[in-house]
Amino acid sequence: MNPAIQYVRDNRKRHLDQLTELLRIPSISTDPEKKKAIGQAADWVSSRLKEAGCTKVKIHKTAGHPIVYGEWLGAPGKPTLLVYGHYDVQPVDPLELWHTPPFEPTLRDEKLYARGASDDKGQVIIHVNALEAHLQTTGSCPVNLKFVIEGEEEIGSPHLDPFIGENSKMLACDAVVVSDTAMFAKGVPSICYGLRGLAYLQIDLTGTDSDLHSGTFGGAVVNPANALVAMLASLKDANGKIKIPGFYDNVRKLKAKERKAFASLPHSDSRYKKALGAPALFGEKGYTTLERTYARPSLDINGIWSGFTGEGAKTVIPAKAHAKISMRLVPDQTAKEIARKVKKHLKAIAPKSVKIEVTPLHGGEAWLADTDHPALAAAGRAMKGAFGRKPVFVREGGSIPVVGTFADVLKVPCVLLGVGLNEDNIHAPNEKMDLDQFYRGNEAAVLLFEEMGAGTPGGKKKKK
Amino acid sequence: MNPAIQYVRDNRKRHLDQLTELLRIPSISTDPEKKKAIGQAADWVSSRLKEAGCTKVKIHKTAGHPIVYGEWLGAPGKPTLLVYGHYDVQPVDPLELWHTPPFEPTLRDEKLYARGASDDKGQVIIHVNALEAHLQTTGSCPVNLKFVIEGEEEIGSPHLDPFIGENSKMLACDAVVVSDTAMFAKGVPSICYGLRGLAYLQIDLTGTDSDLHSGTFGGAVVNPANALVAMLASLKDANGKIKIPGFYDNVRKLKAKERKAFASLPHSDSRYKKALGAPALFGEKGYTTLERTYARPSLDINGIWSGFTGEGAKTVIPAKAHAKISMRLVPDQTAKEIARKVKKHLKAIAPKSVKIEVTPLHGGEAWLADTDHPALAAAGRAMKGAFGRKPVFVREGGSIPVVGTFADVLKVPCVLLGVGLNEDNIHAPNEKMDLDQFYRGNEAAVLLFEEMGAGTPGGKKKKK
Q: What is the pLDDT of residues A378-404, one digit of tens each?
């Protein structure tokens, strides 16, 4: 038995207890009242990196939340792998839908329930555990490691790009690994080679100076809530096609080869629908479910609010109406281009009876890896070793904007080795991590370091 | 000088202090947590009726909030006037937009700011003050009086109709007077002869079992917020016409005479727009602003909520989306008919990818009085005496469902003698009552009793 594998097996309880500690910290990056928790989470990560064997551990201040850095460079001549992850988490509302409090990690049915269990605390930590396993058993590690664990991923990583730019020498490496995605399914390990981008905007409409009585004034003035629903409804047609001028201009067409590969994945619409509890699936006509989420852009209302939302009936014409909308983007759309087009279109269609403000809140670029790169093959072998099955190559509908930055600034490949599951309820109530996924994740990271450190590391810079 | 008029002038401060006391009680009828305040308000009204000289004062329990009754029947042979009003008030959110707390009545620029100042505490009380004025100065009152002051007007008076039905003998009268409307404008007294009805519904859509990550799932499933805005947007066309099948079937056409009368009122769209702070007015094409609010049905979103509504960006596909909508109705639409048609239509247009629930919350019928009735003439003379100008005859876009009930059950005319102003911000933050309106209102009530008690009372039952 591989001693590092034996080590993570022997230390399952300790590693789980440590994760539980981290999950108790309510490090919601978007909430200004959680600044203290953010600091606590950064401190925790910093201590854990030191404990695992990292040197030069430092909490780098930014204008926002800090970035924790640590490294282990004790394998001269071996490739260097940069592990990226985040210690911040999504908000927790609607709180009343959580079966147990989001920051009181709770074990049920071999699953650990807590905000951040899968996204991303429970995933980033597997690499720290793997470093510890190698060092504690052999005194060394097959690869050099650099850790960059930030606190603003859930708000678009506004200070990470400058950090990478300013510290590109410190961060120089042969490959980046990110564990912040889901496997294709439980029992179906996967390597993700594509991510969608994101453009997120807030729309604020104002009608009158004050809320009005809907009897006295109903029919006389525009109701900004009515105006807002009309504007939002017009953004998509009945076939799920987005109607914003120029929206599809730069969308890269799906290749026949990819469509074939997606079609061969063990996906079932009826199982998928049942798992989500959806009465029916719906999306852009002419594309399968996987094609729509992997490789076609989408537009969703993430939040809408106006007027009276309490119990009972209040007969008011609201003065204001608000919505948060976001578009998932695919190559070769850019967040900036789409935000500009959407803002322009919304201003053009707003009725003159309302004032409109459109504020871009968040953006990130889509990303596609070269599936032939040896780093991806090495990751594939590690996943096979840990999960007992050759991984499938998939894309992911979500966005990890920093992946594009690493590719651009450090000029290295990026490996997305996710051990979460789609049913982990990330960004939703009752987020969880399956214990089995966590334990196998630790083993996958152990094996990844070995695979990358052996033979021709996939992480080597391609000079071409 | 009329001694009762002199009395209300001498007692302005006392009457204002009393109103202030009542306005301190947060009697929000729709809020289950305000049950105690409802009881306090009913007690206050009961004490005040006794103090003013009423007998048989009683707080009648109902399955909901109590109805306060009191009477003064010391003028045998004279007509009996029933005064209806309500001690409950609307909710106060958005609380942050109030300049002073809604239940801490505050005087600014000769206006009293508080929830309920105009709707209806500050209006119903003028009749109690007027009874007191007559009794304290002459030992008698020109008319017999019955007071019915309820606590559920703002939630559709669910227990008032049964109360009137069961107590029709006790409530027998020659006319009903309601002060719960606004004058046409400051300096332009008016008598209201028409009200719109109301059908109010809540719509709840459910997509998936749980909120979803908008990256992983965006494009795969229907977003109930997107479905809701599409459904709501389809209810009206770009000309403000309501597209629900059969909605206009029973709408009584405006008579040329009424259109002419409305057109002659001292209304200015540009002043109206400016007063509301609206960038532009908007409503059903082919009708003037007054025609739209007085005599055409309307449809408004009163509240909408779904997904993330906090600060920042949360990339979620909400599991649920909700809206409260209401239609103002005109003769001869009925609340029941319209609620049924709207519910049926919403269920028909809901995509099969969401579950839908539609719950009627509130309803009331439109009402139109006979403008030739002598009771309206008597009220006109009282308003002229108090406000120094002959009142104009107007309709009102709001709804007072009980007016229809009084007309149907007691078979008597109803006089809507409102002393509020359109700019009173009823149902909105910073509700207020102009002190001048309140003081003149007391005088209008004093004169109304005299006018109704003298000559051929307008309140006499018409036997035909």
A: 999 999 999 999 999 999 998 887 888
Residue-level pLDDT at B455 = 54
Tell me which chain B residues have a C-beta less than 8 angstroms from the C-beta of A120: none
* B70 shares a domain with B47: yes
Omega cis (within 30) before A332? yes
Instruction: Check whether B205 has a pLDDT greater than 90.
Output: yes
Q: What is the pLDDT of residue A455?
A: 54
Q: How far is A241 from chain B (nearest CA, A)?
A: 10
Question: Above 60 in pLDDT, residue A66?
Answer: yes
Same domain, yes or no, for A376 and A234?
Answer: no
**Within this chain, do residues B370 and B332 fall inside the same structural domain, yes or no?**
no
Report CB contact under 8 Å: B221, A302.
no
* CATH number of the domain enclosing B345: 3.30.70.360
CA distances from A56 to A60, A80, A146, B217, B332 (A): 11, 16, 10, 39, 80
Cα(B87)–Cα(B85) distance, integer angstroms:
7
- B220 CB neighbours in chain A (<8 A) are 272, 281-283, 289, 292-293, 397
In this complex, do A301 and B306 lie within 8 Å of one another by their Cβ atoms? Answer: yes
Establish whether A119 is a catalytic residue: no
> Is the Cβ pair A318, B298 closer than 8 Å?
no
Q: Are residues A69 and A127 in the same domain?
A: yes
- Give the residue on B whose Cα is nearest the Cα of A398: B215
Q: By residue range, what is the domain housing residue A345?
A: 198-251+297-364
Predicted pLDDT of residue B9 = 98
Catalytic residues of B: 88, 153
Is pLDDT of B410 > 60? yes
* Rounded Cα distance, B106 and B395, in Å: 31
Contact B158, A312 (CB under 8 A): no
Identify the three-state secondary structure at position B95: helix
Looking at beta carbons, which residues of chain A come within 8 Å of B333? none
Contact across the interface for B30 and A303, Cβ inside 8 Å: no
ipTM of this model? 0.81
Residue A4 three-state SS: helix
Residue B459 has what pLDDT? 39
Q: What is the pLDDT of residues A407-417, one digit of tens each?
A: 889 999 999 99
